[in-house]
């Protein structure tokens, strides 16, 4: 960094440096400010944390690879019900990693300090509680639980054991959302009244038609153990590999994707949750035997609190989007809108002028000429000319190239493991994020409006 730039950043007196960003070059043509956000400084850890992962599927491998980028972390053990995953663990991370089909063997090991729970949703509560009772710190993938009552059991277990427990909705650790929260609390968009978010896809993998290995069979997969307390049945590869498609094992679109959007919005606004939820949708394209919809739209009514006004949120996920898919979140206020996309966001301000204006699509043009002149004289006397101007501006904020919010989320988790400080997303936050998503499923399948107590986190 040049000395001139260093002085400039210091003079700015913020976590953000003002400069042009190549991916946002289009914004420059509109003469908008683009602010590049700076991650916090990384401090090497003195104490090594030995991590195990239970569930070595897509999220398991991704989480472990990300966690190992944090300083002072060692991967020592893995559990999975498919032998091929355990073979792959040793190929990727080394033969020294202990592997087993039985996650309880991992919890008995004294060389495991923390556990990543990356199993299908219906196993989250059981393994998380067992791990906390075994004295392990827990990083549990979202959604925290499959059912509301399970969430209260996880909260109780965390309080009872005093274990470090963090939910893996990484957006709450993003430097972009941290800055967005600061801008929101400063009142830059005025009073929030509507949140709208979309996460659309149009691909087989995006619709959970995951690849099934050719060696998958009752011999290589412990399917009976996998079924847990669900209905017993013969081995079914789809139910094991494409579990998100089934109510028995997953939480559908709301649990997979709504929960991300809800987590981020709760973090920015400080909201505890809605008081009413209604969801509708359809099974449009992916009629592959799944018993969950591939299109879901949900409306959430958030009540007024001491820190937020009442507002409405609409979430949509469409796996049959012939446009190819898109993703955005918009927080719309009385003075502006905050548009979030990935690890960047834009604030557009359009503050209404004091003067209401006249003419155009207005009754003014129906007045007689004498009345029009009289109206204009009174109008100018009351408002003048400056009061007629709307205040418009646009400012963009972006994380630097290569920034990884999931890594920041793991670093925050490991910092809590080492120091005992509160995690950024505890079990209560996790249930307040998962709860509205799970209620979306209940509303969809029950075809009814659901009333929710966001403080007690219970259906009314």
Automatic annotation (TrEMBL):
- Signal peptide bounds: 1-28
Going by the UniProt record, its keywords in alphabetical order are:
Signal
Residue spans making up a coiled coil are none
Domain GFO/IDH/MocA-like oxidoreductase, residue spans: 236-338
Mind telling me which InterPro entries this protein's record contains?
Gfo/Idh/MocA-like_OxRdtase_N, Gfo/Idh/MocA_oxidrdct_glycsds, GFO_IDH_MocA-like_dom, NAD(P)-bd_dom_sf, TAT_signal, TAT_signal_bac_arc
* Boundaries of every Gfo/Idh/MocA-like oxidoreductase N-terminal domain copy: 49-168
Q: PROSITE patterns this protein is in?
A: TAT
Q: Is the Signal keyword given for this protein?
A: yes
What terms describe the molecular function in GO for this protein?
Answer: nucleotide binding
Q: Which SUPFAM superfamilies does its entry note?
A: Glyceraldehyde-3-phosphate dehydrogenase-like, C-terminal domain, NAD(P)-binding Rossmann-fold domains
Question: By what name is this protein known?
Answer: Tat (Twin-arginine translocation) pathway signal sequence
Give the species this sequence originates from: Chitinophaga jiangningensis
